[in-house]
Specification:
Helices cover about 35% and strands about 20% of the residues. The protein contains 10 helices and 17 strands. The protein has helices at about 20-40, 60-75, 100-105, 150-165, 195-200, 290-305, 335-345, 370-385, 395-410, 415-439; strands spanning about 1-10, 45-50, 80, 110, 135, 140-145, 175-180, 210-215, 220, 225, 245-250, 265-270, 275-280, 315-320, 325, 350-355, 355-360.
């Protein structure tokens, strides 16, 4: 027998990313695009490995998005077999969650095994809107395990015990799929709590295709473990990952069941989604704000030429500044940089991140300075970093020390202000005379 199915996960409907309405709509567009691909490919069924929704408490618009897509599948005669993910699990006190609601409406088949029942050694079929497995085609069985968090490994052990007690192959099942919302260790650096290969290995004698969700990065292992990644971009960390979206799987059960030669061909496809672009600019070589703006203009214009094909699609553009600023951070006009991005990319939105550090004042450890000299050096160096005060650092440092002493001795604020204004007038006059002399 030959048949096909589509495997996807982590749609996160209802996510109003960055508080933007169009990002809310983008997640629905990505979901509907995958649904349309399933209909066009005329697959026999669809497998949804969790996190259809972004959160447990959804609004009417989000529910309508899900209902619309699932109805399209139902009208095409394509059943959707699903498990619950961590984002959409019903609250403990809730009688029914939204995934269960959709199952009650016959829009999806929600699978999960109640492994806590003592004395049960058989997995129950899907009846009365609940069960551990469903047979979408004669000889084809799909098992499901919802998100179990820290209990996943133990739940998997119990599941394997039940499968061993009642092997599907002895019931005339030719091909099995196991759906779980769980990650694997080693896929993402720093991601804790994933399942190891050794923990999944006991499933292998009973399962031809392990359909996973939860981690948004696509991966596959050993010809039987598959994770398609997220149809939409849920964070900037996902931008540089491989193309992701959904698996189209072609199965031929007439092939012998051998681990080295799977009886399926799983092809990862990228669905349509909003393009993201990450730009990085190092600021170290720019001595003034004007020099930095000119450098950013050059970098952004070059990137716009390199990515001209995505500009009509209104991308989300992230601009990150890195390095050491030669001037005070307060004199950096990030709004001006955002305007440069908008001018060249016509983006949906711009994400600015300033990861620069200010140039520290350097004091040689070998210098034996008293407190007053150290204070004067620090103030002089800080003044010199300001583009308006370059070459005048010592004068401004002496002024700061003088005004501080006036404040310490109890001089009134009005008198200190008069002192400052008098000094400023004299300073401007001296500067003007120096400019005349030099010219």
């Amino acid at each position: 027998m030959r048949f096909s199915f589509l495997h996807f996960a982590d749609c996160h409907l209802g996510y109003r990313q960055y508080g933007h309405k169009e990002r809310f709509n983008d997640f629905a567009r990505a979901f509907l695009d995958v649904i349309q691909r399933a209909i066009e490919a005329q697959v026999d069924f669809v497998v949804l490995a969790g996190d259809l929704f972004q959160k447990r408490a959804i609004d009417a618009l989000t529910l309508n998005q899900a209902v619309h897509g699932l109805r399209l599948l139902r009208e095409a005669g394509i059943p959707c077999l699903a498990v619950e993910g961590n984002h959409e699990l019903a609250y403990y006190h809730d009688t029914i969650g939204w995934m269960e609601f959709l199952a009650q409406q016959d829009l999806l088949i929600l699978l999960h095994a109640d492994l806590r029942q003592d004395g049960e050694d058989r997995l129950t079929p899907y009846t009365n809107k609940q069960g551990a497995y469903f047979d979408p085609l004669p000889g084809v069985r799909v098992y499901g395990l919802r998100y179990m968090g820290a209990s996943t490994a133990k739940a998997l052990e119990l599941y394997v015990e039940r499968l061993a007690a009642d092997p599907p192959q002895e019931q005339g099942i030719e091909y099995t799929i196991f759906v779980a919302h769980a990650g694997m260790e080693g896929v993402l650096p720093g991601h804790m709590g994933g399942l190891s290969h050794s923990q999944l290995a006991p499933l292998r004698p009973f399962v031809d295709y392990l359909a996973l969700g939860h981690i948004h990065k696509p991966y596959e292992f050993d010809g039987w473990i598959y994770n398609p990644g997220s149809p939409e971009t849920c964070s900037l960390d996902e931008v540089n990952w491989p193309e992701r979206g959904y698996y189209l799987v072609q199965v031929d059960t007439e092939k012998p069941r051998e681990p080295e030669e799977p009886r399926h061909q799983a092809t990862l496809h990228a669905n349509r989604r909003r393009p993201f672009l990450r730009l990085h600019v190092k600021v170290d070589l720019a001595d003034t704000p004007q020099a930095l703006y000119a450098h950013c203009q050059e970098v952004i214009a070059r990137k716009a030429r390199d990515h001209a094909s995505i500009i009509p699609k209104q991308p989300v553009v992230s601009l990150t500044l890195t390095g050491t600023l030669a001037f005070e951070r307060s004199h950096l006009d990030t709004a001006r940089l955002q305007e440069l991005v908008e001018e060249h990319f016509s983006p949906l939105l711009v994400l600015m991140k300033n990861s620069t550090v200010s140039r520290d004042v350097h004091v040689d450890p070998g210098d034996r300075l008293n407190r007053r000299d150290l204070e004067r050096k620090v103030l002089t160096d800080k003044a010199e970093q300001h583009p308006l005060f370059q070459g005048q650092g010592p004068a401004w440092a002496e002024l700061a020390i003088h005004l501080k002493q006036l404040a310490i001795t109890g001089v009134s604020p009005e008198a200190i202000l008069d002192e400052f204004q008098a000094w400023l007038a004299q300073h401007r006059e001296r500067t003007a005379q120096q400019e005349e002399t030099s010219s």
